[in-house]
Amino acid sequence: MQTQFDSAALHDPDTAEAEKVLRKCVHCGFCNATCPTYLLLGDELDSPRGRIYLIKDMLEQNRPATAAVALHLDRCLSCLGCMTTCPSGVHYQHLIDHARDHVERTYRRPWAQRLLRAALARVLPFPARMRLGLKVASVIPRFVRRSALLPAPLRAMLGLAAVHAAAPHTEMTPAARPAAPRGRIALLLGCAQSVLTPETHAATQRLLSRAGWEVVTVSGCCGALTHHLGRRAEAVDFAARLIANLRTVSAAGELAAIVVNASGCGTQLKDYGFMLRNDPRLAADAARFSALARDITEVLARSPLPIRALPQRPVVAYHSACSMQHGQQLDALPRRLLQEAGFELREIAEGHLCCGSAGSYNILQSKIATQLRDRKLANIAGTGANIVATGNVGCIMQLRSGSSLPVVHTVELLDWACGGPRPAALPTLPMPSI
Ligand code: SF4
Ligand code: SF4
Hints:
Layout: H1 13-24, H2 36-41, H3 48-60, H4 67-74, H5 81-85, H6 92-106, H7 111-123, H8 127-138, H9 142-145, H10 152-166, E1 183-190, H11 192-196, H12 198-210, E2 213-219, H13 224-228, H14 232-251, E3 257-260, H15 263-270, H16 272-275, H17 283-292, E4 293-295, H18 296-300, E5 315-319, H19 322-327, H20 332-340, E6 344-346, H21 361-364, H22 366-381, E7 387-390, H23 393-400, E8 407-409, H24 410-417
Parallel strand pairs: 1-2, 1-3, 3-4, 5-6, 5-7, 7-8
Helix pairs in contact: 1-3, 1-6, 3-6, 4-6, 12-24
The structure holds iron/sulfur cluster (2 copies).
One iron/sulfur cluster (SF4) is lined by residues 35-37, 48, 51, 76-82, 92.
């Protein structure tokens, strides 16, 4: 694609990078075929190619974003399905991240949107605030939560809080240190996940320590939630705090890997090297920690797991989170691990499509998110599986909000197969043998 950037605009290194991305696009439109919002809305401006044109037009002249540009970019899930499809290697992730930052800096949203986005940015990444928010939500009666008089985002938020309240949880307990550890691994605790599904961290710790790893935990939000809201400065602050925590942990002993078990956070951490490349305070460590970041399944695939025979052979539909399959290009690995652990896997039709979770998208764009969720759940129902497994906390919450099937993290199933407890979400369900 030819570009005609204002030379002043190119002084901004992120705009200069965006120009490089834009020049790779050859307008072929292959990406449109796999874009969830184009599929649902049928508007070219809600397709990757359409958004690329909108971004190009806005950045070329260094223009403020308009309401129309904000609308169509807000509707993008950042699912990155278009990156997997693109034959020209267009790095849409970096383009949309920069465009969201530009929109946030140059467009004044209606007050209700500003209030909602600020509230999400100030609550979701902070575990203590989130716990308090969930407590408050839990005393709101069901008829109020579901009232059509409530604004849709608030209804969506309360619905997700109710999903959390209804799910059984087990708290994280420190894993036993192996007698002769094969190495040292840092497990990222993150923000929302440590509140919403602490059982994921507990299972991860047990699995890693059974596989011979010494596990140290690292607190801190990776900044993905705020980054996707276009609040770049806040995202950089979160990254700086996490990098400081990682420096402390790595100074105490060499790290073999930084393990992330929420694929949205993994995608973000793996991109720190790019995101912070021009920050003299952080660039070197950002690149170092990005290079060490691994999804939990990447580490487990290289570790000997003490798999035991399960009492039955449970039938699992594996939902490949977008941040896993498109963001990190990890699709086959989690499936292989589940199969090796004794689960029967069923393929979900339209597996490339997002479930509508996408960070805070299911709150901000609840109508589209619900349509995508219901489409995903219909495809899951078509598999005949009796368990859904996935590798991202956002997808777990989103699918649980509409499903009667148990939705669990992949590591909970692997942990179970290695002698860990049966996942708390499973006991009441029939588990037919094959
Ligand atoms: S990131 Fe997802 S929703 Fe956004 S343009 Fe690409 S495919 Fe469409
Ligand atoms: S598939 Fe790639 S090159 Fe083709 S229009 Fe989409 S982003 Fe551009």
